Amino acid sequence: MNRFAALFNAIDQSTKTTVKVAALADYFRDAPDQDRMWTIALFSGRRPKRAVTTTKLREWAAEQAGIPLWLFEESYPIVGDLAETIALVLPPVESTSDRSLSDWITQLRSLSDVEDADRKTAVLEAWTQLGGTERFVFNKLITGGFRMGVSQKLMTRALAKATGKPEAELAHRLMGNWHPDDTTWESLIEAEDASADASRPYPFYLAYALEDGPDALGAREDWRAEWKWDGIRGQLILRDGQHFVWSRGEELMTDRFPELARAVDFLQPGTVLDGELLVWHPQTDSPASFNALQRRIGRKTVPKKLLVEAPVVLHAYDLLEWQGADLRDTPFAERRALLEQACADLPPEAPVRLSPQLDFDDWDDLGEIRAVARDENAEGLMLKRADSPYLVGRKKGDWWKWKLDPLTIDAVMIYAQAGHGRRANLFTDFTFAVWNGNDLLPFTKAYSGLTDAEFREITKWVRKNTLQRFGPVRQVTPHHVFEIAFEGIQASPRHKSGVALRFPRMSRWRQDKPLQEANTLEDLNDMLRIYG
Amino acid sequence: MSPTLTFTDRGIYCPAGDFYIDPWRPVERALITHGHADHARWGHKSYMATHAALPVMRHRLGEITTQGIDFGETVQIGDATVSFHPAGHVPGSAQIRVEVGGEVWVASGDYKVEADGLSEPFEPQRCHHFITESTFGLPVFRWQPQAVIAQEINSWWARCAAAGKTAFLGAYALGKAQRLLNMLDPEVGPILTHAAVENTNAVLRTQGFALPETIAATAEIDPKAHKGALVLAPPSALGSAWAKKFGSQETAFASGWMQLRGVRRRRAGDRGFVISDHADWNGLLSTVKETGAEHIYVTHGYTDIFARYLSENGWQAEVVPTEFEGETLDAEPAA
């Protein structure tokens, strides 16, 4: 694992993309096939199944380190990473090992089938043989969650550099259902035809946010506009009489949305649709808010009752494959025409709807349409250039999302807690309150939105203005007012305030605002009435 | 009878001698462990510190009334017998031993156990009551020997030099910077210093501390004339307009916090070297044992956790709130 650990260090020690890509490309050129396949797998979220529970790992690590378990548990949130905490508390290494990455992975996977005691012996032995980064990487392999500052995009770029193949082609090859056990480097990367797998999705094209409005985009005639739906982006694949549903995060969601199975009855094979999964209200024939969809998210199997109460449809807005042919290089306007043709005769019981295009005269007109997006349960507008191909990943220029401004409220910080990992020694997690008469009523937490410099400043302040400690949480003097931005609000009996916010974050530190001028519970309830 | 040392909202106070140790509000008589700004504050009527610590304090605090003392020398202040002993934290830094009626207390300020080749090496003091820091009081903090880190830094510097890049190393201007200076291999290239570091160097050189040759990186300096240089600067100067003048560069940060990957990635630029002037977990524990003290007062850092661990292992340990900051990544406590 020396070579992989060296790669890890090279990537971890640099903040520069070029350096990371060069290190990865070098690795892909020289490493043995099995190792480079596992490297691709790890960096694209295909990790080996967890063979040891983290509870056991914590116990064993504390035992080996000669510290009580509570001390290990207190250290973990400060380090922010279980694999790293274990690596740091264990005694120094006793010997060394030159086994390869795939070798270690094979051994780890074999641990699923052995007795607990043997599992422990194997892990403890690895800990005595692996030092420094190797120990950390080994722990990462056991605990899963292999995020280390290398996106799939970056890895694909490195692969392109190492193999001389185009990045977009490689991105497509890496999609879908493959595993290092049943796939070789040759078949995944080198082979002529990569379309063998019927379930393989196309890499998603992602839009950048339009910050300053559309005036700079040029002539209105060159652009098409749609609602930006507030659902789950998904790709529906119909091939060989089967159907597959993929998320943007390359997760196969077919079983989570059984309603979509009927699509094969209404659309021909050799069709791939890009769209948004939304809960649909058959009575009003309109999409429900994100709150309704939330009940479906994370459910691997769906009870019948929920299927009736929160049925999901795909709002199709792009056609990527038609009659078995890849359409991604065809201009958007032509793809759209074909999409309309494909969806023309769909009956109401089909689980696919055509996402409408919006009529508008000029940019001002479009601005007025955007202003009412919330009424449509949309979160803004999408702008797509009529002649644009369907690109890979987030690219500037052809697709823009023009979102609504968030809702905001001014709130008082009342509790603070230190962050994890990157933010271990800063206070970054805050609880906010609004006035309820003369009392401050907590209603939301927020962690993001401030600059590092602001977090440092508030951290200093928290240290000096702590009233009480509840474990890691500090109650602070009510003093600072922050503007909290959020995307939605709903009633929530579980919260003392009676409301829950969607994606709250600190948009501004209102150092100019006195405590008394923060918003009130009535203000929150007004927002709930209007936007809830 | 009141205790030998008490904890007040102005700082650690000795009623028998009517003096404070490292107070954070202005007092008549302050005994100071070392010159970092969270321990040596402005505004006291008189300052007592080791002869080795005073020049930097005068440099930083300006006109102050001082009384110097040698390491190991004993003075009587009221009914208290007081002596200063090496803390190994930075040059001149001391633990302050206070004895009243046969009861011995030691206030250790900030300390580290490993000898760094520059500061007077740490000497644990037998006592009944020991006041300790716990900046790195978690078992995840364990330092490598200084020589290992020196090798890491020098090979990084050599790689930068070979790639035609200037190596920027961020460290506190007092203590850490001079310790690093002594670890650098002058064969690799010239060593340049930011004004904040060079001013402290000048004070310490006058005192007789041996430091390698450095070149002040003033605003007028021509970076091209110093190929393959390493620039030692306070963290706040990394990435500044002044630093950008040097063109292609890598930046690194030297701190105990660099032990944590998350912090390293947030703060370190290109590299983070794990080196601290505070005791690590093992250093804190071995020191507490060597003092023989039964009562331990934990002042700053991971106080709750460290005190709980000590309590479970037979000590009378408690957390004492102070305004000391230990090693921060953000502003130098001695800024």
UniProtKB/TrEMBL annotation, chain A:
Reactions this protein catalyses: ATP + (deoxyribonucleotide)n-3'-hydroxyl + 5'-phospho-(deoxyribonucleotide)m = (deoxyribonucleotide)n+m + AMP + diphosphate
A biological process term (GO) from this entry: cell division
A single MF term (Gene Ontology): metal ion binding
InterPro entries: ATP-dep_DNA_ligase, ATP_dep_DNA_lig_pp_1105_fam, DNA_ligase_ATP-dep_C, DNA_ligase_ATP-dep_cent, DNA_ligase_ATP-dep_CS, DNA_ligase_ATP-dep_N, DNA_ligase_N_sf, NA-bd_OB-fold
Coiled coil: none
Top-tier EC class: ligase
CDD domains the UniProt entry points to: Adenylation_DNA_ligase_Bac1, OBF_DNA_ligase_Arch_LigB
Annotated keywords: ATP-binding, Cell cycle, Cell division, DNA damage, DNA recombination, DNA repair, DNA replication, Ligase, Magnesium, Metal-binding, Nucleotide-binding
Domain ATP-dependent DNA ligase family profile: 305-436
Gene3D superfamilies the record matches: DNA ligase, ATP-dependent, N-terminal domain (1.10.3260.10), DNA ligase/mRNA capping enzyme (3.30.470.30), Nucleic acid-binding proteins (2.40.50.140)
EC number(s) recorded for this UniProt protein: 6.5.1.1
Keyword Nucleotide-binding: yes
Annotated NCBIfam families: DNA_lig_bact, PRK09247.1
Protein name, UniProt field: DNA ligase (ATP)
TrEMBL record, chain B:
GO molecular function, one term: ligase activity
InterPro entries: MBL, RibonucZ/Hydroxyglut_hydro, Xnuc_lig_assoc
Keywords: Ligase
Domain of life according to the entry: Bacteria
Coiled-coil residues: none
PANTHER family: BLL1145 PROTEIN, CLEAVAGE AND POLYADENYLATION SPECIFICITY FACTOR FAMILY MEMBER
Protein name: DNA ligase-associated DEXH box helicase
